[in-house]
From TrEMBL:
<dbReference type="GO" id="GO:0005856">
    <property type="term" value="C:cytoskeleton"/>
</dbReference>
<dbReference type="GO" id="GO:0051015">
    <property type="term" value="F:actin filament binding"/>
</dbReference>
<dbReference type="GO" id="GO:0005925">
    <property type="term" value="C:focal adhesion"/>
</dbReference>
<keyword id="KW-0862">Zinc</keyword>
<keyword id="KW-0007">Acetylation</keyword>
<keyword id="KW-0479">Metal-binding</keyword>
<dbReference type="GO" id="GO:0006811">
    <property type="term" value="P:monoatomic ion transport"/>
</dbReference>
<keyword id="KW-0206">Cytoskeleton</keyword>
<keyword id="KW-0440">LIM domain</keyword>
<keyword id="KW-0677">Repeat</keyword>
<dbReference type="GO" id="GO:0046872">
    <property type="term" value="F:metal ion binding"/>
</dbReference>
<dbReference type="GO" id="GO:0005938">
    <property type="term" value="C:cell cortex"/>
</dbReference>
<keyword id="KW-0406">Ion transport</keyword>
<dbReference type="Pfam" id="PF00412">
    <property type="entry name" value="LIM"/>
</dbReference>
<feature type="domain" description="LIM zinc-binding">
    <location>
        <begin position="3"/>
        <end position="63"/>
    </location>
</feature>
<keyword id="KW-0813">Transport</keyword>
<keyword id="KW-0009">Actin-binding</keyword>
């Protein structure tokens, strides 16, 4: 028995069959979910078993990082390292280094 098209639910005969994304499609029914542009095996992108053109392919959004104790520690350490030393403190450190060489 011939399979049904995933778009129109009509029988797909072997001469017009596209087998993609674990489904069967008529050549004309294999189109972008958004703009309905007809797709082929070279220009489609699949997302959650549905075909999309390149322009309408869903973009993955990144999730925020949880404030775990380790991430908070790294954030604080990065903040401390990025702070510029104050001129008086820098002068004191240089004096200590010079005194060490005497």
């Amino acid at each position: 028995m011939n399979p049904l098209c995933s778009r129109c639910n009509l029988v797909v005969y072997p001469t017009e069959k596209v087998n993609c994304l674990d489904k069967y499609w008529h050549k004309g029914c294999f189109s972008c979910e958004v703009c309905k542009m007809t797709l082929n095996m070279k220009n489609y992108k699949g997302f959650e078993k549905r075909p999309y053109c390149n322009a309408h392919y869903p973009k993955s959004s990144f999730t925020c990082v949880t404030d775990t104790p380790e991430n908070l520690r790294l954030k604080q350490q990065s903040k401390i390292q990025s702070q510029k030393p104050k001129p008086a403190l820098l002068y004191f450190v240089i004096q200590l280094q010079l005194d060490a060489y005497k």
